[in-house]
Amino acid sequence: MIIATLKYALMITSFVFVMMLAIEYLNVQTKGSWQYSLQKSRWIQYVLSAFLGATPGCLGAFTVVALYTHNIVSFGALVTVMIATSGDETYVMLSLFPVKTFVLISILFMAGIIGGFISDTLFKPGSMIIKKVRQHLEFHEEDECVCYPKGEILSQLKNLTLQRGLLMIVLALLIAGLLTDQLGPPEWNWIKITFLIGSLLALFIVSTVPGHFLEEHLWEHIVKVHVPRVFLWTFGALLLMHILLDYLELGTWIEANYLTIMVIACLIGLIPESGPHMIFVTLFAEGAIPFGVLLASSVVQDGHGMLPLLAESKRSFGQLCSRVLRIDGVSFRDSLRKIKNLMRVTIIYDNEVHAPGLRSGWGFSCLIEKEGTPTILFDTGANGSILFHNMDELTIDPPSIDIVAISHAHWDHTGGLSRLLTRNREVKVYIPESCPEPKDAKKVIVVNQPLEICSGVFSTGELRGIEQSLAVKGEKGLAVIAGCSHPGVDNILKAASQFGTPYALVGGLHGFSQFDVIKALSLICPCHCTQYKSEIRSLYPEKYVGGGAGRIIDIS
């Protein structure tokens, strides 16, 4: 296993080395040509920053950081490049799964442009600029390189330096390995042909560039800094993955803990170092994680691009991390919806606040998400401004909501509906028979009897002539969502039982005190108007989950 892993790591490192060498050559040849174009318009900044970020390696990110710290580009352009870049791991991904890498790069390119525009729109221009700072990056600032000195090439080869000789030998061995099928894919396909052409180009570059370029750019920067790190991270990650997947059944654990893996991927992405991202690249290549986890990790991670910014301004570094994480919430949310059997209930509106930055208000609203079902907003709180503020903080886009279910007609559950309908006129609205029909809704379904709203989502029907609740099927049973429980918790659970066994209860329980009724439940989250929260918590501490705006409950 170790020999095979070592050979595979050497092949990947060789490909990375060849690509890095070519990119460095092109980068120095075109040094500075884009900087004046960046100053002309914000959209040019976004597009070119996304392009520089999508370029393999960290040089594009370094360049934008330097331009940002010199007030040449905006904070949004900085966000753009940090989202778009995948650092040195791009080279590795191209060698492992090239087609999906291009798909990933395309998504990051577009996400970066959108993220940059949003950042500049939300933040006052100039409020996040570091003025008149000099940067010292690995992007070299020497005089323009004459990288093909015709009259000196033969002289350079006759007086071969140690560095040039070693690089030529390594590249010659690499080419021989490809031609004899010792390296690369076993069959000649476009990947192997590209690898061979790149290696021949690299040999040409090493043979012809002047000594200064070879020593300062190729040897000192690529060979001594990047290649050892790429090899060690690649070999270590491959070896670790073999051990975890073959001996510790990591694949089975990942299938049951996708949410944990997603959070870990996002947190590790904040480390200003590209190496840790290699773990998730390798996991994806082994088929152990879905594309969504790799995408989330790729959006958050910035390779070495963050290091110069961190050196100059801890404040800008923190601000950038928060914006990228916020934008990545969209990818995070979309990925969660694809996880098998995962149901997510996000409390948007409640009397209390759970997550910082959100607002409280008397009332209740929550978002229900589950694979294969429409996105459902249950109730809308009392105040549209609070509802929309919290939705914005939680990266919930009103047009993405497919269904609104109103539990009952009281103001603290319907207050935000009219404002929501101004942003989403096409949403279906399910109301109990006793609730007045909303004026601006195009599609209203009046509920009296129990019915299936969509696959796996049921209404209890209007109980006691005042209120309906929802029952959502999960692998472990039903998640029952209640507004105020005016008909009584026992009646709600009894009505929900016709669709399955209740597993969880979330929502307002009003003056409910028959605590034995909820004894069989595995999860209880009392919200809003519940009068006896402390009693429920003391009786069922292992089942109790606190509510509050921003609370996210994942039920597998």
Range of strand content? 5-15%
Q: What count of structural domains?
A: 2
Q: Portion of residues in helices?
A: 40-55%
Q: How many E strands?
A: 13
Structural class: alpha/beta
Termini separation: 36 Å
Main sheet characteristics: 7 strands, mixed
Which outline best applies?
elongated
How large, in whole angstroms, is the Cα Rg? Answer: 29 Å
**Mean pLDDT level:** 79
Low-confidence segments, given as residue ranges, are 32-36, 125-144, 310-317, 335-340
Total of helices: 22
- How are the strands of the largest sheet arranged? 6-5-4-3-2-1-13
Protein described:
- About 7% of the residues have low confidence.
- This protein is elongated.
- The protein is built from 22 helices and 13 strands.
- The chain has two domains: 318 residues, no CATH class; 216 residues, Ribonuclease Z/Hydroxyacylglutathione hydrolase-like (Metallo-beta-lactamase, Chain A).
- The protein has 556 residues and is an alpha/beta fold.
- α1 crosses α6 and α14 runs antiparallel to α15.
- It starts with a helix and ends with a strand.
- The strands form two sheets. The chain has a seven-stranded mixed β-sheet.
